[in-house]
Amino acid sequence: MIDREFSTLAGVGPPLPGPRTSPIAPVVSSSPGPINKFFEWFGDLGIFFWRVVRVAVTPPFEFRELYRQLDEIGSMSLPLVALAGAATGVVLSMEARYSLTRFGAKSLLPAAIVFSIIHETGPIITGLVVSGRVGAGIGAELASMKVTEQIDAIEASAVNPYRLLAAPRILACILMLPLLTLAADFCGLLMGWVAQALVEPLSFHQFINSGFKGADFNDFLPPTFKTMVFGLIIGLIACFQGMRTQGGAAGVGRAATSSVVLSSLFVILADVVLVKLILIFFP
Amino acid sequence: MDAIDHMPMQTVVNRAEHEEDDRAPAIAVEGLHKSFGTQNVLNKVSLTVKRGETLAVLGRSGTGKSVLLRVVIGLEKPDSGSVLIHGQDITGLGLDQLGEIRMKMGFLFQHAALYDSLTVEQNVAFPLRHHKKEMSKSEQDDRVKALLTEVGMEDALQKMPSDISGGMQKRVGLARALALEPDILLLDEPTAGLDPISSGEIDDLVLKLQAEHHMASIVVTHDLHSAKTIADRLALLNEGNVVIEGSFEELQRSDIGFVREFLGHSS
After folding, report:
1. Structurally, what CATH architecture does the domain formed by B52-74+93-104+182-266 represent?
2. Which residues in chain A are contacts of B67 at CB distance < 8 A?
3. CA dist., res. B101 & res. B113, Å (int)
4. Distance, in angstroms, between A229 CA and closest chain B CA?
5. Looking at residues A169-185, what average pLDDT do you find?
6. Does B75 reach chain A within 8 Å, measured CB to CB?
7. Which of A21, A158, A162 sits opposite B75 (nearest CB)?
8. DSSP 8-state assignment for residue B219
9. Is 60 exceeded by the pLDDT of residue A18?
10. Is B111 touching A (CB cutoff 8 A)?
11. CB atoms B116 and A21 under 8 Å
12. Considering only CB atoms, which chain A residues are within 8 Å of B76?
């Protein structure tokens, strides 16, 4: 059942109409069975990733497109990420106050908010918000280009579409996620303090001093930089789903949906692994 | 001989090179087979096109005409057979190696496939910006204007593709296909969906460009009138096979049932 749902989301369900484009479309021939399709999808994703890595490290580099994507993915996502971070900070403050007061540990409230936001809430909220906004955007844009033969036209003009379209988008996601996470963290902490100060007067200076007491860079840097992996996942899956789309307007819709669902799912799964690794290597 | 004796040496050498180019096929498709799943689309198709020659590929819908064109430019990999471009087999090449070959080829897509986020000018400039970095920005701009003037679209520089008609989009697509001065031109249904006047204008444009640029061209079309106007030879595809190849008159003289049926319905 999970396999069937996954294969439907990933767009590797029943064979889709239309000719197969050799470099981007699935390179392994369709074989029956959801489990085969599940592994086929991973195989195709791996090949896609390898092709992107190859063009990303060899010139010519598409700096203009990278700059455009940094703006599109970074600046344009900032308000949404900041708002999500702020809302999370308020909710955390209210929930933590209630719980800690019950257990007589109200003095730990600033630390609970700070650690919760910088360790986990800020990065994961940023990952999920960006996978929703950027994943859908990239997936739909590239899928639309694919079904209207614009990607074929790029290839026919002797330009490598992996170099022009995929590499800058994935790189921009990787570079912008940590910066957006910092913005979400800041807004979360700020609004967490506001929610706290409204109930019980406390200066921001006191809140931060109390919250960061005993904290070091190991508490701050690994959780922030783990979002680079989230960026890789979001960019890679959205580009992959977009560039392998088939089937007209319905295909564009499928690509946008599957980009969001799969990138969100893999961001959460990656978070489980990364948290464990951070706990091992940065105790 | 006397005439040649009186020509400047350089002209004689150029003409000799040109004639040698004309004798060798610019495009040679040999034993091409392509299928999608269980459906055979192309079945042992063989064709050649020399420089300066235009071949029209005709046939019913779904007989693999567009697939043939996509295989020739490397957008599809054939199951077997070879595609030789100036003698080099492109079927086993990777994207970067294909890129070198594609710089000598222009492709007009059926629906023009203009980049919808770029203006008409930026669309035509796209191949130049990526491959003619030795040209200055003003030289590139001049080349774009010259190309758009050549196809009669010089007034649409700043328009978006969505703001111009289907016929105009095809003209811009043609200008983009010619940007790198290709010696092979592939046209996928250049007159499909156009009114008779626009179709005639596109035909005239293709003929003019052929005369000026001396390219090897393959034109995929349903339009027999257009094929007769712009092509030197015609090839009729049916169920993935080339049923007949020759001049329009040779097709008219054919006794093959499918050929007679196709020409009968087209006239």
Report:
1. 3-Layer(aba) Sandwich (3.40)
2. 19
3. 20
4. 28
5. 97
6. yes
7. A21
8. E
9. no
10. yes
11. no
12. 19-22
pLDDT of res. B201: 85
Is a pLDDT exceeding 90 seen at residue B9? no
* Dist CA B256 CA B246 (whole Å): 13
Q: Which residue pairs, CB below 8 angstroms and at least 24 apart, start in B144-153?
A: B144/B175, B144/B179, B147/B175, B147/B176, B147/B178, B147/B179, B148/B120, B148/B121, B148/B124, B148/B172, B148/B175, B150/B175, B150/B178, B150/B209, B151/B175, B151/B205, B152/B201, B152/B205, B153/B120
CB contact under 8 A, B126 and A157: yes
Domain boundaries of chain B, sorted by first residue: 52-74+93-104+182-266
Is the Cβ of B170 closer than 8 Å to some Cβ of chain A?
Answer: no
Give B133→chain A minimum CA distance, Å.
11
Model confidence at A1, pLDDT cuts 50, 70, 90, reads very low
Neighboring chain A residues of B131 at a CB cutoff of 8 Å: 158
Nearest chain B residue to A61 by CA distance is B130
Amino acid B101 reads I
Side chain identity at residue B20, one-letter code: E
Closest CA to B215 of B175, B183, B190: B183
B76 and A23 within 8 Å at the Cβ level: the answer is no
The answer to whether A73 and A130 have CB atoms below 8 angstroms apart is: yes
